[in-house]
Amino acid sequence: MPKRNDIKKVLVIGSGPIVIGQAAEFDYAGTQACLALKEEGYQVILANSNPATIMTDNSIADKVYMEPLTLEYMARICRYERPDAIIPGLGGQTGLNLSLQLFDKGVLDECEIELLGTDAESIRKAEDREKFKELCLELGEPVVPSCIAESIEEGLESADKIGYPVILRPAFTLGGTGGGFASDPEEMR
Asked: Strand 114-115's sheet: what is its strand order?
């Protein structure tokens, strides 16, 4: 992407505390992105609740907010700092969720903040399993057979229709949290 001269200040939302087996890749990617943005002359504002990460070192960003990664705190930071843009994907699921919440609550419009890389509608399409499936089918991309179930009974009926083994995925999460496999009806329960 060519350098945008209309953007001076970028907010990067970190992924928060690192859990064993997840989120370390977001810390690394976020750190590299902050360094690259600074090298290109952008002012980098970082919000992350994890003090045990290289990303929160003062040499990585121009300003670091060590605050809870909640809508309330992100809205305060946006209103105070007035960044020109936020890059949602660098904070993993946390960054995507917060960016979408800021969009839905009107904070991005109020503060004239642009989402870079992934806009709100794209985040929704990627997280909503049915919308994502519809998009893939529209584009002619293959999709595995799937159903949406809102109860254990519906899940069992869907699994019988699709055939075992099945992959279980919760709606509205890209990180896979809460998912699993079932080889038979007993494992579904």
From this structure: 63-65, 43-47, 9-13, 85-87, 114-115
Distances (CA, A) of 90 to 48, 146, 187: 11, 29, 35
Given pLDDT bands bounded at 50, 70 and 90, which one contains residue 114?
very high
51-75: pLDDT as tens digits: 777 777 788 999 999 999 999 999 9
**What are the residue ranges spanned by the domains of the chain?**
9-124, 129-188
Please choose, from the candidates 97, 33, 90, the residue with its C-alpha nearest in 3D space to the C-alpha of residue 69: 97
Distance, CA of 122 to CA of 14 (rounded, Å) = 20
Q: Which two tokens stand for residue 95?
A: 């960054």
User: Using one digit for the tens of pLDDT, what is the confidence trace for 31-42?
Assistant: 999 999 999 999
Q: Which tokens go with 32?
A: 């590299």
Instruction: Give this prediction's pTM.
Output: 0.77
Which of 40, 35, 4, 38 lies closest to 114 in space, CA to CA?
A: 4
9-124 fold: Rossmann fold (3.40.50)
